[in-house]
Amino acid sequence: MNSKQLHYFATIYESGTLSKASIQLNVAVSALSHHLSNLEAELDTRLFDRKSRGLRPTASGERLYDHARSILRAIDAAREDLRISGREVSGDVAIGMAHSGVKAIGVPLIERMLSEHPKLRLSISESLSGATLKHLLSTEVDLALIYNPPSDTRLRTWPVLEESMVCVGKRAIIGDTEAPIRFREMLELPVIMLRHGVFARAQLDDAVLLKQLEARARLQMNSVYAIAGAIRAGLGCVIGTRLFMGDLIAEADIHARPIIEPELKRTLYVCELTQRRASFAIETVRDTVIEMIHESIRSGVWDAEAIGEK
User: Fold this and answer.
1) Hey, what CATH topology would domain 88-160+268-302 get?
2) Alpha helices in 47-187 (DSSP H)
3) Coil, helix or strand for 227?
4) Which secondary structure element, helix H or strand E, spans residue 54, and what is its range?
5) How many Å apart are CA 4 and CA 281, to the nearest integer?
6) Helices assigned H by DSSP within 233-279
7) φ, ψ dihedrals at 113, nearest 5°
8) N or C: which terminal CB in the chain sees fewer CB atoms within 10 Å?
9) Positions of the chain with pLDDT lower than 70, given as ranges
10) Closest alpha carbon to 273 in 152, 160, 125, 159
11) Domain map of the chain by residue range?
12) 185-191 long-range CB contacts below 8 Å, 24 or more apart?
């Protein structure tokens, strides 16, 4: 198996037919069919079911496509990285961000990259922290900003900040007072949680406390807009941060109270995959992101404590 075979296979997969792939690759249909047959023989498995209207990937074909996409992207990154070594930074870098990251530094990061590295093509994907982790592990992004990532040998991580969590909800639900709310009092409220697993972990990294909250949660949903709508409708309250919930807290009947006994905090990490060596472009974006996060804390945009600030 070589990179040409993987490239041909991926194009056939994405095109759905040999004829469309032939046009895209400028390679004869017969040649593509020959390459595909050789690849299936080498792997001793069928990669596509031949249908009258095209090709449908088998389970083996689906799995190989995931591998091929990762391998081909790594090859392109290596080629670009070595080509630009010692010269102007360029190439493609994809970064996944939790909503707080986009809110605090998303637009400034884009502006800075366009100004300082005009040949660098940056793409930003916004999602909940748990989904961002999945995007990184599937190599859909090169870098990711993730809250409380699990201990995983596949990840290389840099902690950059720690945020205190607050209870956010209508005053009629959480109380019309500035006084902190105790964690045990939170358990008596109609709490809205993110769903189990890596999504909920982004809210709270303490497994014991998390299980207590999940057992009492009125609602569980992995949608920022649905959570905001539920809070406005008075269906419950949520554990969040002042940055993340800032737009809601600004509304007259929505309030935020610090949480104590214990004080709840979460840590944001910049993450990469250990198996992928960072290119010059990725290093540039990573260093800039960390610098800008710390700048946003110093300026008061991000209400958090910096970690590892130079």
Assistant:
1) D-Maltodextrin-Binding Protein; domain 2 (3.40.190)
2) 59-83, 99-101, 107-116, 129-137, 171-174, 183-186
3) helix
4) strand 54-57
5) 25
6) 246-249
7) -65, -40
8) C
9) 80-87, 129, 195-205, 310
10) 152
11) 3-82, 88-160+268-302, 166-263
12) 186/213, 186/239, 186/259, 187/212, 187/213, 187/216, 188/216, 189/236, 189/237, 190/218, 190/219, 190/235, 190/236, 190/237, 191/216, 191/217, 191/218, 191/236, 191/237, 191/238, 191/239
Q: What is residue 223's predicted lDDT score, i.e. its pLDDT?
A: 80
Per the listing, tokens 């792997």 go with 43
Task: Please give the helix or strand (H or E) that residue 267 lies within, else none.
Answer: strand 265-273
Is the omega angle on the peptide bond into residue 262 within 30 degrees of 0, that is, cis? yes
Block residue for tokens 């004869």: 28
Q: What's the pLDDT score for residue 202?
A: 60
Whether the Cβ atoms of residue 181 and residue 257 lie closer than 8 Å to each other: yes
Instruction: Give the pLDDT of residue 295.
Output: 94
Residue type, 245: M
Place of tokens 């900040």: 161
Retrieve residue 107's tokens. Answer: 């637009």
Q: Parallel, antiparallel, or unpaired: how do β-strands 254-260 and 166-170 relate?
A: antiparallel
- For residues 272 and 278, the answer to whether their CB atoms sit within 8 Å is yes
Q: In the numeric block, which tokens belong to residue 239?
A: 């554990």
Dump strand ranges (E) for 112-264: 120-126, 143-147, 155-164, 166-170, 181-182, 191-193, 219-220, 237-240, 254-260
In this structure, what token pair is assigned to residue 55?
């090709």
